[in-house]
Backbone:
Protein backbone atom coordinates (compact mmCIF):
# COMPACT_ATOMS: atom_id res chain seq x y z
CA UNK A 1 0.00 0.00 0.00
CA UNK A 2 2.90 2.37 0.40
CA UNK A 3 3.71 2.38 -3.31
CA UNK A 4 1.66 3.74 -6.16
CA UNK A 5 1.20 0.35 -7.85
CA UNK A 6 -0.93 -0.97 -4.99
CA UNK A 7 -4.62 -0.21 -5.38
CA UNK A 8 -7.40 -0.02 -2.80
CA UNK A 9 -11.08 -0.73 -2.69
CA UNK A 10 -13.33 0.63 0.05
CA UNK A 11 -10.29 1.51 2.11
CA UNK A 12 -8.83 -2.01 2.04
CA UNK A 13 -5.59 -2.82 0.23
CA UNK A 14 -5.90 -5.14 -2.75
CA UNK A 15 -2.16 -5.64 -3.12
CA UNK A 16 0.00 -5.89 -6.21
CA UNK A 17 -0.05 -9.72 -6.23
CA UNK A 18 3.69 -10.15 -5.77
CA UNK A 19 3.36 -13.07 -3.33
CA UNK A 20 4.23 -11.23 -0.16
CA UNK A 21 6.84 -8.90 -1.62
CA UNK A 22 6.65 -5.47 -3.21
CA UNK A 23 7.51 -4.93 -6.84
CA UNK A 24 8.75 -1.38 -6.22
CA UNK A 25 10.42 -1.99 -2.83
CA UNK A 26 8.12 0.27 -0.84
CA UNK A 27 5.64 -1.95 0.99
CA UNK A 28 8.01 -4.21 2.91
CA UNK A 29 10.50 -1.72 4.34
CA UNK A 30 11.42 -2.24 7.99
CA UNK A 31 8.72 -4.85 8.50
CA UNK A 32 8.40 -6.49 11.92
CA UNK A 33 7.13 -10.02 12.55
CA UNK A 34 4.53 -10.04 15.35
CA UNK A 35 5.64 -13.10 17.30
CA UNK A 36 3.17 -12.23 20.10
CA UNK A 37 0.11 -12.26 17.83
CA UNK A 38 -1.04 -15.76 18.91
CA UNK A 39 -0.65 -15.04 22.65
CA UNK A 40 -3.73 -13.89 24.55
CA UNK A 41 -3.68 -11.13 27.13
CA UNK A 42 -3.93 -12.34 30.79
CA UNK A 43 -7.29 -12.01 32.51
CA UNK A 44 -7.98 -8.56 33.87
CA UNK A 45 -5.38 -6.89 31.61
CA UNK A 46 -6.34 -4.49 28.84
CA UNK A 47 -4.60 -4.79 25.48
CA UNK A 48 -2.01 -2.15 24.76
CA UNK A 49 -3.75 0.78 23.11
CA UNK A 50 -0.87 1.96 20.90
CA UNK A 51 -0.25 1.06 17.27
CA UNK A 52 2.75 1.46 14.99
CA UNK A 53 2.00 3.33 11.76
CA UNK A 54 4.35 3.43 8.79
CA UNK A 55 4.47 6.22 6.23
CA UNK A 56 6.47 6.70 3.06
CA UNK A 57 9.91 5.05 2.81
CA UNK A 58 9.88 3.37 6.20
CA UNK A 59 9.10 6.39 8.39
CA UNK A 60 7.34 5.07 11.49
CA UNK A 61 5.54 6.67 14.43
CA UNK A 62 3.49 5.41 17.35
CA UNK A 63 -0.09 6.58 17.92
CA UNK A 64 -2.61 5.98 20.66
CA UNK A 65 -5.83 4.22 19.75
CA UNK A 66 -8.01 6.48 21.91
CA UNK A 67 -11.23 5.51 20.11
CA UNK A 68 -10.69 1.76 20.69
CA UNK A 69 -10.87 1.00 16.98
CA UNK A 70 -10.45 -2.60 15.86
CA UNK A 71 -7.16 -2.13 14.05
CA UNK A 72 -5.08 -4.87 12.50
CA UNK A 73 -1.90 -4.95 10.45
CA UNK A 74 -2.49 -3.51 6.99
CA UNK A 75 -5.30 -1.10 7.90
CA UNK A 76 -5.02 2.41 6.51
CA UNK A 77 -5.72 5.03 9.17
CA UNK A 78 -5.94 8.79 9.49
CA UNK A 79 -3.58 9.97 12.22
CA UNK A 80 -3.07 13.22 14.08
CA UNK A 81 -0.49 15.69 12.76
CA UNK A 82 0.72 19.12 13.81
CA UNK A 83 -1.87 20.63 11.50
CA UNK A 84 -4.46 18.52 9.71
CA UNK A 85 -4.12 14.76 9.49
CA UNK A 86 -1.82 12.24 7.90
CA UNK A 87 -2.49 8.90 6.22
CA UNK A 88 -0.46 5.78 7.00
CA UNK A 89 -0.62 2.01 7.34
CA UNK A 90 -0.75 0.05 10.58
CA UNK A 91 2.30 -2.22 10.71
CA UNK A 92 2.14 -3.43 14.32
CA UNK A 93 -0.42 -3.69 17.10
CA UNK A 94 -0.75 -5.35 20.48
CA UNK A 95 1.87 -6.08 23.10
CA UNK A 96 4.77 -6.02 20.68
CA UNK A 97 4.23 -2.27 20.27
CA UNK A 98 4.97 -1.87 23.98
CA UNK A 99 8.24 -3.75 23.48
CA UNK A 100 9.17 -1.60 20.49
CA UNK A 101 8.41 1.65 22.31
CA UNK A 102 10.45 0.53 25.29
CA UNK A 103 13.36 -0.38 23.05
CA UNK A 104 13.24 3.02 21.35
CA UNK A 105 12.77 4.78 24.73
CA UNK A 106 9.41 6.34 23.88
CA UNK A 107 7.37 7.32 26.92
CA UNK A 108 3.62 6.67 26.37
CA UNK A 109 2.32 9.79 28.13
CA UNK A 110 -1.35 10.54 27.31
CA UNK A 111 -0.82 14.29 27.02
CA UNK A 112 2.07 14.21 24.56
CA UNK A 113 1.38 11.28 22.24
CA UNK A 114 -0.49 11.62 18.97
CA UNK A 115 -3.76 9.79 18.34
CA UNK A 116 -5.45 7.78 15.63
CA UNK A 117 -8.52 9.61 14.35
CA UNK A 118 -10.29 6.95 12.29
CA UNK A 119 -9.90 4.37 9.59
CA UNK A 120 -9.25 6.08 6.30
CA UNK A 121 -12.20 6.44 3.98
CA UNK A 122 -12.04 6.18 0.22
CA UNK A 123 -12.01 9.96 -0.09
CA UNK A 124 -9.00 10.18 2.23
CA UNK A 125 -7.16 7.58 0.18
CA UNK A 126 -7.96 9.35 -3.09
CA UNK A 127 -6.55 12.63 -1.79
CA UNK A 128 -3.50 10.83 -0.44
CA UNK A 129 -2.79 8.92 -3.67
CA UNK A 130 -3.29 12.12 -5.71
CA UNK A 131 -0.72 13.90 -3.56
CA UNK A 132 1.69 10.99 -3.95
CA UNK A 133 1.46 11.27 -7.73
CA UNK A 134 2.65 14.88 -7.56
CA UNK A 135 5.83 14.10 -5.65
CA UNK A 136 8.01 12.90 -8.52
CA UNK A 137 7.44 15.88 -10.91
CA UNK A 138 7.80 18.23 -7.95
CA UNK A 139 11.17 16.71 -7.10
CA UNK A 140 12.44 17.35 -10.64
CA UNK A 141 11.42 21.01 -10.48
CA UNK A 142 12.77 21.46 -6.96
CA UNK A 143 16.18 20.14 -7.97
CA UNK A 144 16.25 22.52 -10.93
CA UNK A 145 15.44 25.47 -8.67
CA UNK A 146 18.28 24.51 -6.32
CA UNK A 147 20.68 24.30 -9.28
CA UNK A 148 19.58 27.70 -10.59
CA UNK A 149 20.24 29.29 -7.19
CA UNK A 150 23.63 27.51 -7.04
CA UNK A 151 22.95 25.94 -3.66
CA UNK A 152 25.28 23.17 -2.49
CA UNK A 153 22.51 20.76 -1.60
CA UNK A 154 20.73 17.72 -3.01
CA UNK A 155 16.98 17.23 -2.71
CA UNK A 156 16.64 13.49 -2.33
CA UNK A 157 12.93 13.00 -1.64
CA UNK A 158 9.57 14.76 -1.17
CA UNK A 159 6.80 13.51 1.10
CA UNK A 160 3.29 14.94 1.13
CA UNK A 161 1.15 14.87 4.20
CA UNK A 162 -1.94 12.67 3.92
CA UNK A 163 -4.34 15.61 3.48
CA UNK A 164 -2.03 17.26 0.90
CA UNK A 165 -1.69 20.39 3.04
CA UNK A 166 2.10 20.19 3.56
CA UNK A 167 5.11 18.90 1.65
CA UNK A 168 8.34 17.89 3.38
CA UNK A 169 11.54 18.24 1.33
CA UNK A 170 14.38 15.96 2.45
CA UNK A 171 17.84 17.13 1.43
CA UNK A 172 21.49 16.39 2.07
CA UNK A 173 24.30 18.93 2.25
CA UNK A 174 27.92 18.98 3.34
CA UNK A 175 27.66 22.43 4.95
CA UNK A 176 24.98 24.77 6.19
CA UNK A 177 22.72 26.07 3.39
CA UNK A 178 20.72 29.30 3.26
CA UNK A 179 17.54 28.16 1.49
CA UNK A 180 15.23 31.08 2.37
CA UNK A 181 15.01 32.17 -1.27
CA UNK A 182 14.44 28.56 -2.29
CA UNK A 183 11.45 28.21 0.04
CA UNK A 184 9.89 31.32 -1.51
CA UNK A 185 10.20 29.77 -4.96
CA UNK A 186 8.72 26.50 -3.72
CA UNK A 187 5.73 28.22 -2.09
CA UNK A 188 5.10 30.31 -5.21
CA UNK A 189 5.38 27.36 -7.57
CA UNK A 190 3.72 24.52 -5.61
CA UNK A 191 1.24 26.59 -3.54
CA UNK A 192 1.46 24.51 -0.37
CA UNK A 193 3.19 24.68 3.00
CA UNK A 194 6.85 23.77 2.78
CA UNK A 195 9.06 22.09 5.36
CA UNK A 196 12.76 21.50 4.78
CA UNK A 197 14.40 18.61 6.65
CA UNK A 198 18.08 17.76 6.42
CA UNK A 199 19.08 14.09 6.61
CA UNK A 200 22.41 12.32 6.60
CA UNK A 201 23.80 10.32 3.73
CA UNK A 202 23.00 7.03 5.44
CA UNK A 203 19.41 8.14 6.08
CA UNK A 204 19.11 9.16 2.44
CA UNK A 205 20.19 5.71 1.29
CA UNK A 206 17.73 4.09 3.70
CA UNK A 207 14.85 6.19 2.35
CA UNK A 208 15.64 5.64 -1.32
CA UNK A 209 16.70 1.99 -1.07
CA UNK A 210 18.73 0.06 -3.60
CA UNK A 211 20.85 -3.03 -4.22
CA UNK A 212 24.21 -3.41 -2.51
CA UNK A 213 27.40 -4.93 -3.86
CA UNK A 214 26.40 -8.24 -2.23
CA UNK A 215 23.36 -8.48 -4.53
CA UNK A 216 20.79 -8.01 -1.75
CA UNK A 217 18.65 -5.05 -0.78
CA UNK A 218 20.30 -2.48 1.44
CA UNK A 219 20.25 -3.36 5.13
CA UNK A 220 19.36 0.20 6.10
CA UNK A 221 16.21 0.12 3.96
CA UNK A 222 14.98 -3.33 5.01
CA UNK A 223 15.78 -4.01 8.68
CA UNK A 224 18.60 -1.81 10.03
CA UNK A 225 17.32 1.06 12.18
CA UNK A 226 20.33 2.30 14.17
CA UNK A 227 23.33 3.66 12.32
CA UNK A 228 26.55 3.05 14.22
CA UNK A 229 29.79 4.72 13.28
CA UNK A 230 32.08 2.64 11.07
CA UNK A 231 35.84 3.29 11.04
CA UNK A 232 38.64 2.02 8.85
CA UNK A 233 40.03 0.06 11.80
CA UNK A 234 37.15 -2.40 11.33
CA UNK A 235 38.56 -3.20 7.88
CA UNK A 236 42.09 -3.47 9.25
CA UNK A 237 41.09 -5.95 11.94
CA UNK A 238 39.40 -8.10 9.28
CA UNK A 239 42.46 -7.84 7.01
CA UNK A 240 40.51 -6.26 4.16
CA UNK A 241 42.13 -4.17 1.47
CA UNK A 242 41.72 -0.48 2.23
CA UNK A 243 40.12 0.29 -1.11
CA UNK A 244 37.49 3.03 -0.76
CA UNK A 245 35.59 1.80 -3.81
CA UNK A 246 35.09 -1.62 -2.23
CA UNK A 247 34.50 -0.48 1.34
CA UNK A 248 32.02 2.31 0.55
CA UNK A 249 28.31 1.65 0.24
CA UNK A 250 25.55 3.33 -1.75
CA UNK A 251 25.66 6.34 0.58
CA UNK A 252 29.35 6.95 -0.05
CA UNK A 253 30.24 6.09 3.56
CA UNK A 254 31.83 2.92 4.90
CA UNK A 255 29.53 -0.08 4.75
CA UNK A 256 27.53 -0.85 7.87
CA UNK A 257 28.18 -4.58 7.37
CA UNK A 258 31.83 -4.07 8.34
CA UNK A 259 30.64 -4.04 11.96
CA UNK A 260 28.69 -7.31 11.74
CA UNK A 261 31.62 -9.72 12.22
CA UNK A 262 33.98 -7.28 13.92
CA UNK A 263 33.35 -8.67 17.42
CA UNK A 264 34.17 -12.22 16.37
CA UNK A 265 37.42 -11.04 14.75
CA UNK A 266 38.37 -9.12 17.90
CA UNK A 267 37.74 -12.21 20.01
CA UNK A 268 39.89 -14.32 17.69
CA UNK A 269 42.71 -11.76 17.73
CA UNK A 270 43.00 -12.07 21.51
CA UNK A 271 44.84 -15.36 21.01
CA UNK A 272 47.37 -13.69 18.69
CA UNK A 273 50.45 -11.86 19.97
CA UNK A 274 50.92 -8.29 18.82
CA UNK A 275 52.30 -7.86 15.33
CA UNK A 276 55.00 -5.46 16.49
CA UNK A 277 56.46 -8.03 18.90
CA UNK A 278 59.76 -9.37 17.63
CA UNK A 279 61.07 -12.91 18.10
CA UNK A 280 64.72 -13.21 19.12
CA UNK A 281 66.59 -16.31 17.97
CA UNK A 282 70.23 -17.30 17.70
CA UNK A 283 69.98 -16.98 13.95
CA UNK A 284 68.57 -13.46 14.11
CA UNK A 285 65.60 -11.27 14.98
CA UNK A 286 62.29 -12.19 13.30
CA UNK A 287 59.49 -9.73 12.50
CA UNK A 288 55.84 -10.60 11.83
CA UNK A 289 54.82 -10.21 8.19
CA UNK A 290 51.34 -11.75 7.95
CA UNK A 291 48.65 -13.43 10.07
CA UNK A 292 45.88 -15.87 9.21
CA UNK A 293 43.04 -15.40 11.70
CA UNK A 294 41.02 -18.41 10.56
CA UNK A 295 43.83 -20.99 10.72
CA UNK A 296 45.76 -19.38 13.57
CA UNK A 297 49.04 -19.09 11.69
CA UNK A 298 51.66 -16.34 11.61
CA UNK A 299 54.47 -15.69 9.16
CA UNK A 300 57.81 -14.29 10.35
CA UNK A 301 60.90 -13.18 8.44
CA UNK A 302 64.43 -12.51 9.68
CA UNK A 303 65.73 -8.98 9.47
CA UNK A 304 67.73 -8.75 6.25
CA UNK A 305 66.02 -11.85 4.78
CA UNK A 306 62.63 -10.35 4.06
CA UNK A 307 61.87 -12.70 1.17
CA UNK A 308 62.04 -15.88 3.29
CA UNK A 309 58.94 -16.30 5.45
CA UNK A 310 58.55 -18.95 8.13
CA UNK A 311 55.07 -20.08 9.19
CA UNK A 312 54.37 -20.92 12.84
CA UNK A 313 51.26 -21.21 14.99
CA UNK A 314 50.10 -18.69 17.58
CA UNK A 315 50.92 -21.10 20.43
CA UNK A 316 54.46 -21.47 19.12
CA UNK A 317 54.82 -17.71 18.82
CA UNK A 318 53.65 -17.22 22.40
CA UNK A 319 56.05 -19.93 23.55
CA UNK A 320 58.97 -18.16 21.89
CA UNK A 321 57.89 -14.82 23.39
CA UNK A 322 57.80 -16.35 26.88
CA UNK A 323 61.31 -17.72 26.38
CA UNK A 324 62.49 -14.28 25.23
CA UNK A 325 61.06 -12.73 28.37
CA UNK A 326 63.25 -15.12 30.36
CA UNK A 327 66.20 -13.97 28.21
CA UNK A 328 66.37 -17.29 26.42
CA UNK A 329 66.65 -17.79 22.68
CA UNK A 330 65.72 -20.66 20.42
CA UNK A 331 68.05 -21.87 17.71
CA UNK A 332 65.92 -20.80 14.73
CA UNK A 333 62.37 -20.61 13.47
CA UNK A 334 62.97 -23.43 11.02
CA UNK A 335 62.60 -25.92 13.87
CA UNK A 336 59.01 -24.81 14.47
CA UNK A 337 58.19 -24.14 10.83
CA UNK A 338 59.25 -27.64 9.79
CA UNK A 339 56.29 -29.12 11.64
CA UNK A 340 53.85 -27.12 9.50
CA UNK A 341 55.24 -28.03 6.09
CA UNK A 342 52.30 -29.24 4.06
CA UNK A 343 52.31 -31.45 1.04
CA UNK A 344 51.07 -29.19 -1.73
CA UNK A 345 50.84 -32.01 -4.26
CA UNK A 346 47.36 -32.15 -5.70
CA UNK A 347 45.83 -35.54 -6.39
CA UNK A 348 43.15 -35.36 -9.03
CA UNK A 349 40.27 -37.75 -8.74
CA UNK A 350 37.89 -39.04 -11.35
CA UNK A 351 34.78 -37.07 -10.43
CA UNK A 352 32.87 -38.43 -13.42
CA UNK A 353 33.04 -41.97 -12.12
CA UNK A 354 34.58 -45.00 -13.74
CA UNK A 355 34.03 -43.58 -17.23
CA UNK A 356 37.11 -42.19 -18.94
CA UNK A 357 37.26 -38.84 -20.70
CA UNK A 358 37.69 -40.61 -24.05
CA UNK A 359 34.58 -42.72 -23.71
CA UNK A 360 32.91 -40.90 -26.59
CA UNK A 361 35.87 -41.38 -28.94
CA UNK A 362 35.65 -44.12 -31.53
CA UNK A 363 37.85 -47.12 -30.66
CA UNK A 364 40.89 -47.86 -32.76
CA UNK A 365 39.67 -51.34 -33.74
CA UNK A 366 36.74 -49.90 -35.66
CA UNK A 367 39.06 -48.24 -38.16
CA UNK A 368 40.55 -51.62 -39.13
CA UNK A 369 37.10 -53.10 -39.48
CA UNK A 370 35.97 -50.22 -41.66
CA UNK A 371 39.08 -50.56 -43.84
CA UNK A 372 38.45 -54.30 -44.23
CA UNK A 373 34.84 -53.66 -45.13
CA UNK A 374 35.86 -51.08 -47.73
CA UNK A 375 38.37 -53.49 -49.26
CA UNK A 376 35.77 -56.27 -49.47
CA UNK A 377 33.31 -53.89 -51.10
CA UNK A 378 35.89 -52.79 -53.66
CA UNK A 379 36.72 -56.44 -54.46
CA UNK A 380 33.07 -57.29 -54.99
CA UNK A 381 32.61 -54.30 -57.25
CA UNK A 382 35.63 -55.22 -59.36
CA UNK A 383 34.43 -58.80 -59.73
CA UNK A 384 30.99 -57.63 -60.87
CA UNK A 385 32.51 -55.26 -63.39
CA UNK A 386 34.68 -58.04 -64.84
CA UNK A 387 31.70 -60.38 -65.08
CA UNK A 388 29.73 -57.74 -66.98
CA UNK A 389 32.57 -57.02 -69.43
CA UNK A 390 33.20 -60.70 -70.48
CA UNK A 391 29.87 -61.29 -72.32
CA UNK A 392 30.27 -58.07 -74.26
CA UNK A 393 33.73 -59.08 -75.45
CA UNK A 394 32.45 -62.55 -76.65
CA UNK A 395 29.74 -60.95 -78.76
CA UNK A 396 32.21 -58.61 -80.35
CA UNK A 397 34.56 -61.50 -81.32
CA UNK A 398 31.73 -63.44 -82.84
CA UNK A 399 30.92 -60.61 -85.19
Residues:
Amino acid sequence: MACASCSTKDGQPKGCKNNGTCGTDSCNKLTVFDWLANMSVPNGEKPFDFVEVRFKNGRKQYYKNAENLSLSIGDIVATQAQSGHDIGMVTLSGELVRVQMKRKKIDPKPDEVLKVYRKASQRDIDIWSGARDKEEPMKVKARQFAIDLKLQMKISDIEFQGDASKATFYYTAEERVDFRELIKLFAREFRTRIEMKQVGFRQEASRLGGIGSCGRELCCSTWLTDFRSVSTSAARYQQLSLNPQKLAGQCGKLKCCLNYELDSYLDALKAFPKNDTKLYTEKGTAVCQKTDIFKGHMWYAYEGEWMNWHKITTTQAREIIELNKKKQKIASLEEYAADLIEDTKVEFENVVGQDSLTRFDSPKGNKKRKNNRNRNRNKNRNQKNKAQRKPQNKTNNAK
Notes: The chain has a mean pLDDT of 81. Residues 229-270 form one domain. The chain has four domains: 8-120, 128-205, 229-270, 273-340.
